[in-house]
Amino acid sequence: MRRRRLLSVAGALAAQALCPVADAAAPATERFARNFDGMRLRDQDDRPFDFERLLGQVLLVGFVYTGCSTVCPVQTRALVEVLARLPRQARVRLVSLSVDPRGDTPAVLRAHARQVGADLSRWSFVTGRIEDIDRLGERLRLFRPDRAATPADHASGLWCIDAEGRLVQRYAGNPPDVARLVRELPVLAGRAQG
User: Fold this and answer.
1) What is the mean pLDDT of residues 61-67?
2) Partners of 93 in the beta sheet?
3) Where are the domains of the chain?
4) ω before 186 within 30° of 0 (cis)?
5) Which residue in 13, 25, 72, 151 could disulfide with 99, CB within 3.0 to 4.6 Å?
6) Cα–Cα distance, 19 to 99 (Å, whole number)
7) Strand, helix or coil at 140?
8) Are 112 and 31 within 8 A, CB to CB?
9) Third-level CATH fold of 2-193
10) pLDDT in tens, 1-42
């Protein structure tokens, strides 16, 4: 039990160190969204996707690709369960960004979302240009430095962004702790409304 707690604390500290956000002097609304500045992202409906328009909601952001057969499907199934268990009125939105822009077109993402039973009224599947995903990967340290040119070795964590756009928590994504997310996300969303 003690070892598990130490590993949990060490993991949390490592996650904080690996999550670059804008400096503390920057306005809160710029912190996480600033990582996406200049990127042309598209959602599953092939509409422009902009993090700024989601301010006011708690966001749980993860990185996946539809061709994955290991971690991504497990994470996606868990997040389907999280959304199903969250109160409808909770201002929580999930965002899954593809790390495989070559294969994950908006149409592919939409088909995938339907196949897994994702509630698209509260969940966006997003893709972008290859250079944007590569740049985002560098900014958020999504890939191992020695990775091959495939999306397989990407970070599986989940970034939790508060209603003001600040990174407030990194959750494990392999697999996500469904009970913890169901318990904590509404509390965070309630603070935003209060």
Assistant:
1) 88
2) 59
3) 2-193
4) no
5) 151
6) 17
7) helix
8) no
9) Glutaredoxin (3.40.30)
10) 444 433 333 333 333 333 333 333 344 444 677 777 788 999
